[in-house]
Protein backbone atom coordinates (compact mmCIF):
# COMPACT_ATOMS: atom_id res chain seq x y z
CA UNK A 1 0.00 0.00 0.00
CA UNK A 2 1.30 3.46 -0.92
CA UNK A 3 1.39 6.28 1.64
CA UNK A 4 1.13 10.01 0.91
CA UNK A 5 1.60 12.89 3.35
CA UNK A 6 -0.81 15.82 3.35
CA UNK A 7 -1.17 18.95 5.45
CA UNK A 8 -4.35 19.87 7.26
CA UNK A 9 -4.73 23.56 8.09
CA UNK A 10 -7.27 24.85 10.58
CA UNK A 11 -8.35 28.11 12.15
CA UNK A 12 -10.76 28.80 14.98
CA UNK A 13 -13.79 27.85 12.87
CA UNK A 14 -12.84 25.31 10.22
CA UNK A 15 -10.17 23.17 8.60
CA UNK A 16 -8.92 22.19 5.14
CA UNK A 17 -6.77 19.42 3.69
CA UNK A 18 -4.22 20.66 1.15
CA UNK A 19 -4.05 18.54 -2.03
CA UNK A 20 -3.07 19.09 -5.63
CA UNK A 21 -5.95 19.78 -8.02
CA UNK A 22 -4.31 17.27 -10.36
CA UNK A 23 -4.88 14.54 -7.74
CA UNK A 24 -8.62 15.27 -7.72
CA UNK A 25 -8.69 14.86 -11.50
CA UNK A 26 -6.63 11.65 -11.36
CA UNK A 27 -8.99 10.22 -8.73
CA UNK A 28 -12.02 11.32 -10.79
CA UNK A 29 -13.55 13.30 -7.93
CA UNK A 30 -13.02 16.91 -9.05
CA UNK A 31 -16.76 17.21 -9.83
CA UNK A 32 -17.67 16.00 -6.32
CA UNK A 33 -15.88 18.83 -4.50
CA UNK A 34 -18.16 21.54 -3.09
CA UNK A 35 -17.84 25.32 -3.15
CA UNK A 36 -16.96 25.15 0.56
CA UNK A 37 -13.43 24.20 -0.46
CA UNK A 38 -10.88 26.65 -1.84
CA UNK A 39 -8.31 26.76 -4.61
CA UNK A 40 -5.04 28.68 -4.96
CA UNK A 41 -2.61 28.02 -7.80
CA UNK A 42 -2.53 24.29 -8.40
CA UNK A 43 -3.65 23.39 -4.88
CA UNK A 44 -7.11 22.71 -3.53
CA UNK A 45 -7.94 23.14 0.14
CA UNK A 46 -10.68 20.59 0.88
CA UNK A 47 -13.09 21.51 3.66
CA UNK A 48 -13.11 19.07 6.53
CA UNK A 49 -16.82 18.19 6.68
CA UNK A 50 -17.42 16.57 3.27
CA UNK A 51 -14.74 17.18 0.66
CA UNK A 52 -11.85 15.89 2.76
CA UNK A 53 -13.79 12.67 3.38
CA UNK A 54 -14.50 12.33 -0.36
CA UNK A 55 -10.77 12.62 -1.06
CA UNK A 56 -9.72 10.23 1.72
CA UNK A 57 -12.26 7.61 0.60
CA UNK A 58 -11.08 7.88 -3.02
CA UNK A 59 -7.46 7.47 -1.97
CA UNK A 60 -8.38 4.47 0.21
CA UNK A 61 -10.20 2.88 -2.75
CA UNK A 62 -7.05 3.44 -4.83
CA UNK A 63 -4.98 1.62 -2.20
CA UNK A 64 -3.36 4.77 -0.84
CA UNK A 65 -2.97 5.61 2.85
CA UNK A 66 -3.02 9.34 3.67
CA UNK A 67 -1.00 10.55 6.63
CA UNK A 68 -2.03 13.99 7.88
CA UNK A 69 0.20 16.68 9.40
CA UNK A 70 -1.96 19.22 11.27
CA UNK A 71 -1.18 22.96 11.31
CA UNK A 72 -3.08 25.60 13.29
CA UNK A 73 -3.57 29.00 11.62
CA UNK A 74 -4.94 30.72 14.70
CA UNK A 75 -8.15 32.78 14.55
CA UNK A 76 -8.57 33.24 10.78
CA UNK A 77 -6.69 31.31 8.11
CA UNK A 78 -5.41 32.95 4.94
CA UNK A 79 -7.10 30.06 3.09
CA UNK A 80 -10.44 31.84 3.57
CA UNK A 81 -9.21 34.52 1.12
CA UNK A 82 -8.62 32.04 -1.70
CA UNK A 83 -11.13 31.48 -4.50
CA UNK A 84 -13.99 29.07 -3.85
CA UNK A 85 -13.76 25.71 -5.59
CA UNK A 86 -14.21 25.27 -8.53
CA UNK A 87 -12.54 28.32 -9.90
CA UNK A 88 -11.68 29.75 -13.28
CA UNK A 89 -8.07 30.07 -12.11
CA UNK A 90 -7.65 26.30 -12.17
CA UNK A 91 -6.31 25.39 -15.58
CA UNK A 92 -3.81 23.04 -17.17
CA UNK A 93 -1.21 25.80 -16.84
CA UNK A 94 -1.63 26.20 -13.08
CA UNK A 95 -1.79 22.45 -12.55
CA UNK A 96 1.84 22.16 -13.69
CA UNK A 97 3.26 25.58 -12.79
CA UNK A 98 4.12 25.51 -9.08
CA UNK A 99 5.13 23.07 -6.38
CA UNK A 100 3.18 22.12 -3.25
CA UNK A 101 6.06 23.40 -1.15
CA UNK A 102 5.57 26.86 -2.67
CA UNK A 103 1.84 26.78 -1.85
CA UNK A 104 2.53 25.77 1.75
CA UNK A 105 5.34 28.31 2.15
CA UNK A 106 3.00 31.04 0.93
CA UNK A 107 0.57 30.25 3.74
CA UNK A 108 3.20 31.39 6.23
CA UNK A 109 4.46 34.54 4.56
CA UNK A 110 3.01 37.88 3.52
CA UNK A 111 4.93 37.86 0.25
CA UNK A 112 2.75 37.65 -2.85
CA UNK A 113 4.09 36.01 -5.98
CA UNK A 114 2.73 35.93 -9.51
CA UNK A 115 0.99 32.57 -8.98
CA UNK A 116 -0.99 33.61 -5.89
CA UNK A 117 -4.56 34.79 -6.25
CA UNK A 118 -6.44 36.52 -3.48
CA UNK A 119 -10.12 37.41 -3.39
- The proportion of residues forming helix, as a percent range, comes to 25-40%
Shape: globular
Give unreliable regions as ranges: 91-101, 104-119
Total number of domains: 1
Count of DSSP helices?
4
Secondary-structure element pattern, one letter each: EEHEEHEEHH
Structural class: alpha+beta
Strand content: 25-35%
The whole-number mean of residue pLDDT values reads 81
Give the gist of this structure.
The protein is built from four helices and six strands; from the N terminus they run ββαββαββαα. With 119 residues, the chain is α+β, with helices and mostly antiparallel strands. It has one domain.
Write the layout of secondary structure elements.
Layout: E1 2-10, E2 15-20, H1 21-27, E3 38-40, E4 43-47, H2 51-61, E5 64-72, E6 83-84, H3 92-95, H4 100-107
Parallel strand pairs: 1-5
Antiparallel strand pairs: 1-2, 2-4, 3-4, 3-6
Considering the chains and any ligands shown, give keywords for the structure.
119 residues, alpha+beta, 4 helices, 25% helix, disordered C terminus
Structural write-up:
The chain has helices at about 20-25, 50-60, 90-95, 100-105; strands at about 1-10, 15-20, 40, 45, 65-70, 85. It is an alpha+beta fold and about 120 residues long.
